[in-house]
Amino acid sequence: MSFDHPNYGLSESQEEDFQPASLDNPLPRAVLRMNNYQLLDGEWNFAIDTTDSGLRDGWHLGHSYEYTAQWPGAVEAHIAEAKGQPGTWHDKVVVWYEREFTRPERDVEQIRSMLQLTFGACGYETRVWLNGRQLRTIEGEDIHYGGYTSFSYELREESLQAVNRLTVRIADTMDAETPRGKQESHVYKRGGIWYQTYTGAVRSVWLEMVERNRLRSRVGIVSLVEDQLVRFNLTLRIHDPGAYVIRLQVFDRDPAATEPLASSDFPLRLEAGQREQRVAMEVPGAQLWSPEEPRLYRLVAQLIDAEGYVAQIESHFGLRKIEARGAYVYLNNQRIYLDGILYQPGRATYDEMQKHMHAMKELGCNLVRVHIAGVDPRIYNLADELGLLLWVEVPSPHSSTPRSRQNHREELLRMVALIGTHPSVVIWSLYNEDWGAQDIATNPETRQYIVDMYHYMQIAYPQFLVVDNDGWHHISWLGRLKSDLLTAHLYTPDLNRWRELLDRLVMGEMEGTAAFPLVVGDPFFYRRQVPLIVSEWGGFGFPDYGGPQDSATRAENIRLFKQELRKRSIAGDVYTQATNIEDERNGLIDPYTGALDVPAGLLRSRIEP
């Protein structure tokens, strides 16, 4: 195995005057490591386990693979390539992948290091074997569930051979209780707004040398802008108990910056295992992050053992504050109107998603609502740099049961743990349009679960605004809305009808505006005490939504509809949508090139708040 990336060297003990380098981020994660890595992307052996007999027959011990497949890639594409026909499946799919890698050579300086295997995302159900022995994730899972976030395995030295065989079994079903977003299921069949499944080996997998005692690739950041104070939430992984020091240094983002703006040490004694630790430090003179000035700082976080050995990660962050205050949203204590657009990346490549993000900025958007989908984490980094606010959503299950709620909760916790670094992420939706919560109006258990998760997010992640169920059926408890925003989905191609709906909405009519009542639970009386967002509108060009097909007329409609929004006490809007995807043909951006089909700046507000 060759570890030869030019930006990386072996981790080693550093002197006190260590000067951090500026690195590009080549892997789909939020932080950088000063270490070696090797992508395992490329050609893998591939097999379709049609009868789900591979576990019983011991395929992990040895199997003759009939096909090959390119990792990363969707199961559907791999089946299609193997069979020479469409790779759709209608109930359950089980596939196996296998490849070999050469054991890396170790020298004396690497005695404090170990080999780690990381999947950027894979699922929905993943099992992994090394040389026929099943691996457990760092969290202790024999089976990893979930399809949108990364997970890792530590490879024990005694399990490694000169040439190693890595075997992966991936299973998924149309089960409506699993988080699926807008992929089809047993409840919602493909067609219209429901899409082809896209599952399996969907993100890169890599090997890397990591320290036995280290900071993991999870950094949560909460900034208190008035005090220029930053709270850092760090995850520590320890194999050797003892005395350690966490050292945090904050630098200007400029690669030439060598003197830290702030530095602080935090001595602590650590036991073996994994734990989270919050520390706070002042960053005097720090400027705030905003869409107009996306000012970022570089964090160098080090874990130093009693002998002075340093394990290091690096990330960037920005200081910002988001609030729902009265009828409006405030960013850094300044009122802001959210000029948003709905974004469904679907099967877009990372390169295409980059083009989309730049195009949405060019359209005049300051907010992108990433619609119930998991995306490459580097997109969050790009939003940080471009100054795009992000509204993130948990991919929803399609049925409301105790199990679906448990799956939903676990997916939320996995996602939020890995996205807490980014100043661009400002809003989270728990559900959308009752998907996975169809009984929200009638089932107190469903409402209680959503209320509990809303309260959890408020306490654990105060840096975000949280929406309970976007579009309608928000929850009122004792007359208090359990959502930081009151959102409505309004679709009509008729301008006069549009004016009427907006007027009724701002007057506080909770019924008869959206497809269903806006609030359920206890009585709720809207009197501008919470920001009102039209979080979906337009859809011009999609036949079921109505509206013109030609881009010039569509652009004029958007301009007129947008003007009506800004004439009223509305805090923001989200035009639907950025690009065409499958049957939905209402995009404003070419999904392949990123070119605009409408004039630049069309979605930028012309009226100052």
From TrEMBL:
Annotated region (Disordered), positions in chain: 1-25
SUPFAM superfamilies: (Trans)glycosidases, beta-Galactosidase/glucuronidase domain, Galactose-binding domain-like
UniProt signal peptide: none
Example GO molecular function: hydrolase activity, hydrolyzing O-glycosyl compounds
Database matches in InterPro entries: Beta-gal/glucu_dom_sf, Galactose-bd-like_sf, GH, GH2_Domain-Containing, Glyco_hydro_2_cat, Ig-like_fold, Ig-like_GH2
Keywords for this protein: Glycosidase, Hydrolase
Short name of any one Pfam family annotated for the protein: Glyco_hydro_2_C
Segments forming domain Glycoside hydrolase family 2 immunoglobulin-like beta-sandwich: 225-320
Membership in a protein family: Belongs to the glycosyl hydrolase 2 family.
Protein name according to UniProt: Glycoside hydrolase family 2
Species, as recorded: Hymenobacter sediminicola
